[in-house]
Design a protein that fits this description.
This protein is α/β, with parallel strands linked by helices. The chain has helices spanning about 15-20, 25-35, 85-100, 165-175, 180-195, 200-230, 235-245, 250; strands spanning about 40-50, 60-65, 70-80, 115-120, 130-135, 150-155. The chain has eight helices and six strands; from the N terminus they run ααβββαβββααααα.
């Protein structure tokens, strides 16, 4: 079921990307999560796709930011728990490095990068609002690898346990929709502005239709493969009809 445009919130991928195109809000969010300043933003790219090579799995970043100092920040909004976040972060990090290091360049030219996942659930399961990961020496925890990478997972479920006031107010807004400071009010105002934009409405409608078509195409392909396997194993057509929902003529063509 496709969500109505009027009902979209910051949790929804489409609206999150629209809001993050506002550099002021985007910069504030990143700095709040990292508890650090990032300097001036050079550019923000939403739904940024990267294809490393033809046979490889492609990557689409929700929000890819580069600061003027060259550092990259990938910010993802994750609503459903697909139980793959750590490996996804690893893959996103690798794709980012491969994409932006040109052939012949030194490895030392790799830009520092931060992969940030804002999750509505607890990926790690320790009830912490923030999980920050850096590569450290196992034998000496005070010795970092200094490879210029950092991964951060935000757990919105733990908003009540968040010590930082600004982050707590943001996570409260994310979970409840209640604005409680200047930053969250700014986000909500941006959302209402987007909802008044007819072009954004049409864009969402087209995107929703396209995604539904892909979903339907994938489901149909799975049904055909299932029917083909059942047919090969000698199942009667009557059972294949029940299991897959395909028509008798479709099954006969397999």
């Amino acid at each position: 079921m496709v969500k109505r445009f009027e009902d979209l919130t910051l949790q929804d991928d489409f609206m999150f990307c629209k809001v993050m195109q506002n550099q002021k809000l985007c910069k504030k969010l990143i700095e709040m999560i990292l508890f650090d300043t990032i300097g001036k933003i050079a550019y923000v790219s939403v739904q940024h796709s990267i294809n490393t090579y033809e046979q490889a799995k492609s990557v689409r970043f929700d929000v890819l930011v580069q600061a003027e100092n060259g550092k990259f920040y990938d910010v993802e909004m994750q609503v459903s728990n697909e139980r793959n976040i750590p490996k996804r972060m690893r893959f996103y990090q690798a794709a980012l490095d491969i994409s932006f290091l040109d052939k012949g360049n030194s490895y030392n030219n790799l830009n520092d990068s931060f992969i940030i996942f804002i999750c509505l659930f607890d990926v790690i399961g320790k009830n912490r609002p923030v999980y920050t990961f850096k590569n450290l020496c196992i034998e000496d925890k005070n010795t970092p690898l200094q490879d210029g990478t950092q991964k951060v997972i935000i757990n919105a479920e733990a908003f009540k346990n968040t010590e930082d006031k600004e982050l707590k107010e943001f996570l409260t807004y994310l979970k409840t929709g209640k604005t409680n400071n200047e930053f969250t009010r700014g986000i909500e105002e941006m959302i209402q502005t987007v909802k008044q934009n007819e072009q954004a409405r049409q864009e969402y409608r087209l995107l929703s239709t396209f995604e539904m078509d892909i979903k339907d195409s994938t489901e149909y392909r799975v049904k055909k493969e299932t029917a083909k396997l059942m047919k090969k194993r000698g199942y009667p057509v009557s059972e294949i009809l029940i299991m897959t929902g395909l028509s008798e003529s479709e099954i006969e063509k397999l």
